[in-house]
Amino acid sequence: MKTCVILNPMAGRGVAGQRRGELEAALRAAGLDFTLLTTHARGGATELAYQAVERGFSTLVAAGGDGTINEVVNGIVGSARSGVGTATLGIVPLGTGSDFAKMIDGSASSDLSTAIRRIAAGNTRPVDVGQISVETGGRELQRAFINGLGAGIDAQVAVEVARVTWATGLAAYIIASLRALASYKTSQMLVRYDGRELRRRLYFATVANGRWQGGGFLLTPGAEIDDGQLDLCAVQSLRLDQVIRYYPRLLDGSHVALREVTTARARTIEISSATPFPVATDGEVVATDATRVTIETLPGAVQLLA
């Protein structure tokens, strides 16, 4: 198995880079034939992934957080679409949140040894990917995600978490959430999904493949990464007292029972608003002034080492 490991040394507030030696030792101990490459700028993992497929690597390992996984997935999907080739995806979770890794049985956010053993075992499963088209500032952006997309205040949280450089994990996302709540203005949004419509003033609309986002918030507790569909969670604008009362319910998934919350499962979802809104995929900000985003499921688009 010819393996290319793509390490984002800045993931986890720089912890991923500090663990490079440990990572390489574990890969060698597992008997893997690997080449390790490091990213140097945002989007770099996508380019490295694409180039690795061109060079004949059959397995690409994303070593970092959800953003790193996202970039590698975009490289895999892009190379397959263009006819260059394809590769399986491995994950070593070393990020701030590492939410997607929670969908793999036995994975912990910093459990490097378990991740390496899984990669060395070579067992794969097909998992779905979300493909998006975002209209923003007169342009149209396209990219894929593997864990989730946020439109509204949850995307604003991704903007804020990048500024909270002194905290990690769930704590960083809670602090960022409070900052976003203090400044975010809700707007009228239209959500279309499989022939149905929701027109409300929304705090956010999350479209997810995985269950967790934001470092541990269980936003879509029923989501499965291989069912050929994406899960929608849309939350209406709330009073401050409701925000305070309901906020803890995002941690255990019980918010889905609230009448202010709409959930659904669909293969195609569209979110639009006359008021520009932020959009983030897998915790990384894609646009801050989107007016429309269309999301469709790509069933089984990636083979995951699991």
Task: Describe the secondary-structure layout.
Layout: E1 2-7, H1 15-18, H2 20-29, E2 33-38, H3 44-54, E3 59-64, H4 66-81, E4 88-93, H5 112-121, E5 124-136, E6 139-145, E7 148-152, H6 153-161, H7 169-183, E8 187-193, E9 196-208, E10 230-236, H8 240-246, H9 249-252, E11 261-266, E12 268-281, E13 284-305
Parallel strand pairs: 1-2, 1-3, 3-4
Antiparallel strand pairs: 5-6, 5-13, 7-9, 7-12, 8-9, 8-12, 9-10, 10-11, 12-13
Description of the molecule:
The chain has 306 residues and is α+β, with helices and mostly antiparallel strands. It folds into two domains: 2-122, Rossmann fold (3-Layer(aba) Sandwich); 129-300, Tumour Suppressor Smad4. The protein has nine helices and 13 strands. It has helices at residues 15-18, 20-29, 44-54, 66-81, 112-121, 153-161, 169-183, 240-246, 249-252; strands at 2-7, 33-38, 59-64, 88-93, 124-136, 139-145, 148-152, 187-193, 196-208, 230-236, 261-266, 268-281, 284-305. The chain is globular and about 55 Å long. The model has no long low-confidence stretch (mean pLDDT 94).
Summarize the structure.
By secondary structure, the protein is an alpha+beta fold.
C-alpha end-to-end distance: 15 Å
CATH topology of the largest domain: Tumour Suppressor Smad4
- What's the level 1 CATH class of the largest domain? Mainly Beta
- Rg estimate, integer Å: 19 Å
